[in-house]
Amino acid sequence: MSADFTVEQKNYLEGFVSGIAALRTSRGLPPIGGAKGTRATSPASLPAPEGPDAAAHRAMARVEAAGKKLADAERAKREELGLDSYPRMVKAAREGVFPRGDDVLRWRYHGLFFVGPTQQSYMVRLRIPNGILTHWQLAGMADIAEAHAGPYAHVTTRANLQIREVPASDGIAVLEKLVGLGLTCKGTGADNIRNVTGTPTAGIDPQELIDTRPYALEWHHHILNERAMYGLPRKFNVAFDGAGLIAALEDTNDIGFQAVEVREGHGVAPGVWFRLALGGITGHKDFARDTGVIVPLPDATRVADAIVRVFIDRGDRSNRNKARLKYVLDELGFDAFLAEVEAKLGAPLTRAPAGAIVARPDAGRQTHIGVHRQKQAGLNWIGIVLPVGRMNVDQMRGIARIARDLGDGELRLTVWQNLLIPGVKDADVPLAVAALEALGIGISASAVRAGLVACTGSEGCKFAAAPTKRNAEEIAAWCDGRIRVDQPVNIHLTGCHHSCAQHYIGDIGLIGARVPVSDEGDTVDGYNVLVGGGFGPDAAIGREVFAKVKAEDMPPLIERMLGVWMERRASADESFAQFSRRHEVAELAAMFRPEMT
């Protein structure tokens, strides 16, 4: 390369040429310079990247121009984006082999998650906008799980479904059968915009400000059909909260659209708008923060698109631990970031002072379970209890039949790892409840069990340090037989730092940890214990009170913690979070420790 270039210029040109070569390869074009033996094109004369992948490739080139090394995932995406891997996935399925190396990432663009070495199988995660599916889709999912996977499904903390234990030969069959049901898995893993969540009672909620379904669905289809939205440096979450009775946890998302009512007299049109919150990632101890921006309801997708495009340009592509939107906001500041969003939009965003916003109604703590009246006269939703989000195929088919025969035919998944059967007539509620009980499913639970959330854990995820779902069940079984809690309490168990179960926002949060048990380095399953988390108006990040507690010791410890709260709370209505927040960590540890086994 010419000595006339500086080191930075040389790095830029090398990255630029590499990006162009990868783009041409992904499109089946010959290398730059033509066939072997022909003269190569001068870097200075190369055209700029074009097409929907161009912004991501330019961002990669800028990293290399600055003298940094691309993260391995970025290099893999430049060589072949996962969306382009389907023919090779089909070939691998015919050969009965799982992906290796970079292909593990690429297959996830289509919803196939190879979970080895924990299990030699795929987990398949769906995309269900606003968490709403039909009775026949759930019944069809049961058929697919029975034929190609373990005979069960899990409801996830993104109001979604996933099945597990899919062999290498069956992954493509699962994806194609799901399309036949009107479902898709595209973009549910890797560095993509994940399942779009919304208020689970959208359109039937008596206190909602808006029905979130059309906005979630519009964004869902935009993601699927705009290839540029797959050029992200890391995963991205978007949620729409309509101010209903069941929290959508939008403040834990990268973008949270919160329905708010704007008062008259503040220079903007009164009525219902979306308030824009950005940067939520509670696993990194940050909630989405109010930007002061309000968005007209019809503009939500357009604004979200512009935000994602700035993230594509600005996100860190050299350090995956710092590649989320939060870190772009930390670096630029909210004002500078929003200025770039406005440049993408070609128009200013609307600001509203805090005083212009009417206080939002609170969500309930346990409105996701039990029988609740809809806004439609004579109709109800029934929130059913699924222990740690699991249901077997017989239960799936039975729930689908109840929704078909006694409900409105839909099912609503929630971020609390359960589901709702809406549209049940007053007269049919007892029959629906009896039918659920015949399936071994209830609609009520103890305060501990009702607020229990657990990720997949080490039995199905290579990152997890403990079997969270099994341990969650052990905690619930122990506490239910020994202590009666008279207020809602959320206990979140997550297996690793990815915080899929959002341990930081639980009243009690447990994060998996290996606990040393010998001088030779032997370890057993265990947890670090946090207290005082919250969400919505009560948002707070939990504080660690114990480290490296054996999993076998967790049930009696949780019982002790709940008992201390019940005995020493300032009043009968003081919540566990309030109790824990008015004490220092050392005080809490001293109160909770004496009866640890």
UniProtKB/TrEMBL annotation:
Residues 33-53 are annotated as: Disordered. Pfam families: NIR_SIR, NIR_SIR_ferr. The lineage of its organism: Bacteria, Pseudomonadati, Pseudomonadota, Alphaproteobacteria, Hyphomicrobiales. It comes from Ancylobacter polymorphus. SUPFAM superfamilies: Nitrite and sulphite reductase 4Fe-4S domain-like, Nitrite/Sulfite reductase N-terminal domain-like. The keyword 4Fe-4S applies. Keywords: 4Fe-4S, Heme, Iron, Iron-sulfur, Metal-binding, Oxidoreductase. Residues 121-178, 372-438 form the Nitrite/Sulfite reductase ferredoxin-like domain. InterPro entries: Cbl_synth_CobG-like, NIR_SIR_4Fe-4S, NiRdtase/SiRdtase_haem-b_fer, Nit/Sulf_reduc_fer-like_dom_sf, NO2/SO3_Rdtase_4Fe4S_dom, NO2/SO3_Rdtase_4Fe4S_sf, NO2/SO3_Rdtase_FeS/sirohaem_BS. This is NirA family protein. Gene3D superfamilies: Sulfite Reductase Hemoprotein, domain 1, Sulfite Reductase Hemoprotein,Domain 2.
